[in-house]
Amino acid sequence: MDAVFSVPEPRNEPIRAYAPGTPERESLKAAVDTLAGERLDLTMTIGGRQRPGGGEPFDVVQPHNHAHVLGVAHHATAADARDAVAAAKAAAPAWRDLPFSERAAVFLRAADLLSGPWRDRLNAATILGQSKSVAQAEIDAACEFIDFLRFNVHFGQQVLAEQPFSSPGMWNRFDHRPLEGFVYAITPFNFTAIAGNLPMAPALMGNTVVWKPSPTQQFAAHFTMRLFEAAGLPPGVINMVTGDGLAVSEVALADPDLAGIHFTGSTGTFKLLTRTVGQNIDTYRTYPRLVGETGGKDFVIAHPSAEPSGLVTALVRGAFEYQGQKCSAASRAYVPASLWRDGVRDELLAAAESLSYGDVTDFSHFGGAVIDRRAFDKHAAALDRIKGSASCSVAAGGTADDSTGFFVRPTVVECDDPGHEVFTTEYFGPILGVHVFEDARFDEVVAQAESAAPYALTGAVFATDRQAIERASHALRFAAGNFYVNDKPTGAVVGQQPFGGARASGTNDKAGSVLNLLRWVSPRTIKETFVPPTDHRYPHMG
Ligand SMILES: NC(=O)c1ccc[n+]([C@@H]2O[C@H](COP(=O)([O-])OP(=O)(O)OC[C@H]3O[C@@H](n4cnc5c(N)ncnc54)[C@H](O)[C@@H]3O)[C@@H](O)[C@H]2O)c1
Ligand SMILES: N[C@@H](CCC=O)C(=O)O
Questions:
Q1: Higher pLDDT, 93 or 541
Q2: Per-residue pLDDT for 361 more than 80?
Q3: Once rounded to an integer, what is the mean pLDDT over residues 445-452?
Q4: DSSP letter string, 332-344
Q5: Ligand nearest to the CA of 326
Q6: 344: CA distance to ligand 1 center in Å?
Q7: ipTM for the predicted complex
Q8: Contacts of range 526-534, beta carbons closer than 8 Å, 24 or more positions apart
Q9: Residue 125: which residues within 8 A CB-CB, separation 6 or more?
Q10: Where are the alpha helices (DSSP H) in 294-371?
């Protein structure tokens, strides 16, 4: 077909409420019951074929009920990784030669399947495997994932439309080639949408991918791979390997055809991958593109003019939704003494104490458990250190219980010392540090908070005084890639608040935007001269 297609205009997927007594709630409940009753073989998918990894098995469990095994996966071995890389390379020529519209149609179909018949399955898998509440699963596994699929197609088309100028007598063109080689996508446990987006975005632009999901997100990742297949993704375009990824990295990072890494996860892991690529730099055919979105220590700073109830709600939702396991989660707050004394303290502590964390298959809970034993132990140890610290006191929560699930209570820590680890270390759990300051010190506190932590992902300022907002916004310009005024620092929506941070928080390539898709193409410039000159002499030569 010869045509310049326009892709469907993307719209953000409406969020379902799952109110008691509604058919949508019953249908999701049934999907949760069905998936909870199975014990799946969580296979790899290489070249379109499912097979178990060749390494040690590991259980994928419900974090809120860790005795309940949802499925068993195996760590991929070096041989598995070599097969995945070979499958990606074999699929590359046919996939990149498919017109963009055909590749886009696969992902638009995936979006519609997920919006309809696959919605309950992906949501249920995310509730069970990652311990998300219904509301948190819906905004992630359904809405954000659907948005990534649809908006990426829109932005991909925008990339292709980007063309150079042409002087008379010639036609200059960009051929937006995919990268030469394969892309290695490594994804975190906390968002089903991110896990789907990281292999999808390079694939849309014509690349083939080796995808390594997090072991603790493997349950939903399994269904994501099935969704891509149901949408018509050809074998070998996305090859999913399971496990911790150590053997996969040994193979993939040493391969001459490694063309890019699309990573989201901790700062430490991304630094390790970057360092390894640096060490192997002479191995590669081309410089691998490194895209990494990493950790955060996200702040909320209130001015004395802030509206108190909005501030409290933002702190509660920003810090404690999904048990604080969002890279964007509010984990340090700076509150003026006047507001703190006049109600914010009492409201915040009461709200934190009232939150119910429990078995999220009971839809009435606000939240669930933290992801695994490693996270639980890390938070328990941090709480012990905080309790032993002279400058801090636990004002709410502060307890942890792993008898049935990995539960850590929503915790508020008041701390005099703004340099304390509670304001600098990413715990990635439901622990909020609060520094209370004398009202007149607002600008000084903003300046300290600006670089108290090495990260620069998200941050919020609460104020009604426009000059205070302007001053804080200016002083914090480089302290957050996503900056909020009078809103919580979480919950970025694809297409509306393109997401990503700098400093130790990543390469800031803004997932789900044109900026990210640009990283997965390597344009060839073509100049065609319609009537080539036939005389080599300059006019001045006579
Ligand atoms: N900035 C963002 O957009 C964003 C979004 C979500 C999560 N995060 C960050 O992610 C972190 C939490 O996620 P996590 O605990 O899954 O992070 P993690 O770094 O422990 O793991 C991320 C992924 O890397 C894999 N991995 C680890 N070492 C590897 C290696 N040598 N080779 C190949 N793969 C390897 C893991 O198995 C997992 O799939 C937090 O720091 C959070 O801030 C950032
Ligand atoms: N995009 C999500 C965060 C993803 C990281 O975990 C938000 O804005 O809350």
A1: 93
A2: yes
A3: 98
A4: EEEEEHHHIIIII
A5: 2
A6: 34
A7: 0.98
A8: 526/172, 526/173, 526/174, 526/175, 527/170, 527/171, 527/172, 528/170, 528/171, 528/172, 528/173, 529/169, 529/170, 530/169, 530/170, 530/171, 531/169
A9: 35, 141, 192, 219, 220, 222, 223
A10: 308-320, 337-339, 345-354
For ligand 2, atom 5: residue with the closest CA: 327
**How far away, in angstroms, is 57 Cα from ligand 1 center?**
21
Is the pLDDT confidence value at 333 over 80?
yes
Which band of pLDDT confidence, cut at 50, 70 and 90, is reported for residue 1? confident
Condensed to tens digits (0 to 9), the pLDDT of residues 230-270 reads: 999 999 999 999 999 999 999 999 999 999 999 999 999 99
What is the reported pTM?
A: 0.98
Of 333, 332, 335, the residue nearest 304 (C-alpha): 335
d(CA 449, CA 194): 28
Position 89 confidence tier, pLDDT thresholds 50, 70, 90? very high
Which ligand is located closest to the Cα atom of residue 271? 1
Q: Exactly one of 13, 138, 293, 414 is catalytic; name it.
A: 293
Best residue among 145, 264, 272 to mutate for probing ligand 1, ranked by most atoms within 8 Å of CB: 264
pLDDT score at 541: 84
Q: Write phi, then psi, for 505 (nearest 5 degrees).
A: -95, 0
Which residue, by CA, sits nearest to atom 34 of ligand 1? Answer: 245
Catalytic residue among 138, 321, 327, 392: 327
490 lines ligand 2 (CB under 6 A): yes
User: Does the CB atom of residue 491 touch ligand 2 within 6 A?
Assistant: yes
Q: Report CA(354)–ligand 1 centroid distance (Å).
A: 31
Confidence of residue 193 (pLDDT cuts 50, 70, 90): very high
Tokens of 164: 């150079």
Alpha-carbon span 535 to 313, nearest angstrom: 75
User: Residue 196 above 90 pLDDT?
Assistant: yes
Mean pLDDT of 136-162: 98
Torsion sign, CA atoms 189, 193, 199, 202: negative
The yes-or-no answer on residue 293 being catalytic is yes
Measured in angstroms, how far is the CA atom of residue 165 from the centroid of ligand 2?
38
326 CB contacts (<8 Å, ≥6 apart)? 190, 191, 490
Q: Is 492 in the pocket of ligand 2 (CB under 6 A)?
A: yes
Antiparallel, parallel or unpaired: β 392-396 and 411-415: antiparallel
Average confidence score pLDDT of the chain: 98
Q: Which residues line ligand 1 (CB under 6 A)?
A: 186-191, 194, 212-215, 244-246, 248-249, 264-266, 269, 272, 293-296, 327, 426, 428, 457, 499-501, 505-506
